[in-house]
Write a structure and sequence with these properties.
The chain is of the alpha/beta class. It is built from six helices and 13 strands. It has helices at residues 9-19, 25-43, 81-90, 137-148, 163-172, 200-205, and strands spanning 2-5, 49-55, 60-66, 71-77, 95-96, 98-103, 110-116, 125-129, 132-133, 153-161, 177-183, 186-187, 193-194. Strands 1, 4, 5, 6, 7, 8, 9, 10 and 11 form a nine-stranded mixed beta sheet that branches. Strands 2-3 form a two-stranded antiparallel ribbon. The longest helix is centred in the N-terminal third of the chain and has 19 residues, at 25-43. The radius of gyration is 17 Å and the shape is globular. The protein starts with a strand and ends with a helix. The structure holds 1-O-pyrophosphono-5-O-phosphono-alpha-D-ribofuranose and uracil. The site of 1-O-pyrophosphono-5-O-phosphono-alpha-D-ribofuranose has 24 residues, from strand 4, strand 6, strand 9, helix 4 and helix 6.
């Protein structure tokens, strides 16, 4: 697996704002979308292109375009939903799948409640998005599901990750590419990331 840690100052700045307790739901959503777009710009730098013929005001020419229909964005519900619009702003014709998982508050283990992927999935570049990579349980379960359905080329984008989650995901899925906005210090006794940003789903959707 390759792990890329974001170094762009704009990403760092926006993640700092995201963490603040005083950031409102409205601001939080906007920041998640913007960070996803900036991280997507980095993570999609190896996207495949194809040549198409176009006519400029001057002449006919053959030029590259992204093979947009070959991309699938797959958010892990709920919080991953907040990142989808940022990726679609870059690749509007990408397909979108959904993987519904929630962590049991006691065991911290992921429970699946909904999964639907674009069909066929085999040929697509898949970008799984979830703002938080904590124990890694949800990420591992999501990638397990995608692979079970034939997905092969998988990138995983998380805005904030704990070292424990990165290690677990690398161990379970050494073949995927991981993109992390910020690598935080550790998990606390409730498996929340420190310093983190709290519960990403609650902050995006204004629930508690
Ligand atoms: C959060 C987050 C990840 C998961 C990370 O979701 O969005 O999916 O926790 O934790 P893990 O790495 O320990 O599995 P949560 O289960 O709280 O569900 P929600 O988005 O519906 O609130
Ligand atoms: N899920 C979250 O939303 N936040 C954490 O810190 C850990 C898991």
């Amino acid at each position: 697996m390759s792990v890329s840690y974001m170094t762009h100052p704009l990403i760092k700045h926006k993640i700092t704002l995201l963490r603040k307790e005083s950031t409102t739901t409205n601001e939080f959503r906007k920041l998640v979308e913007e960070i996803a777009m900036l991280m997507g710009y980095e993570a999609l730098s190896d996207l495949q292109t194809e040549e198409i013929k176009i006519t400029t005001p001057i002449e006919e020419t053959t030029q590259p375009v992204i093979q947009g229909k070959k991309l699938a964005v797959v958010p892990i519900l709920r919080a991953g939903l907040g990142m989808v619009s940022g990726i679609l702003a870059l690749v509007p014709s990408a397909r979108v799948g959904h993987i519904g998982l929630y962590r049991d508050p006691e065991t911290h283990l992921p429970h699946e409640y909904y999964c639907k992927l674009p069909d066929p999935i085999e040929e697509r570049q898949i970008v799984v998005v979830d703002p938080m990579l904590a124990t890694g349980g949800s990420a591992i379960a999501a990638v397990d599901f995608i692979k079970k359905h034939g997905g092969q080329r998988i990138k995983f984008m998380s805005i904030i990750a704990a070292p424990e989650g990165v290690s677990a995901l690398i161990k379970a899925h050494p073949d995927i590419q991981l993109y992390v906005g910020s690598l935080d210090r550790c998990l606390n006794e409730n498996a929340y990331i420190c310093p983190g940003l709290g519960d990403a789903g609650d902050r995006i959707f204004g629930t508690k």
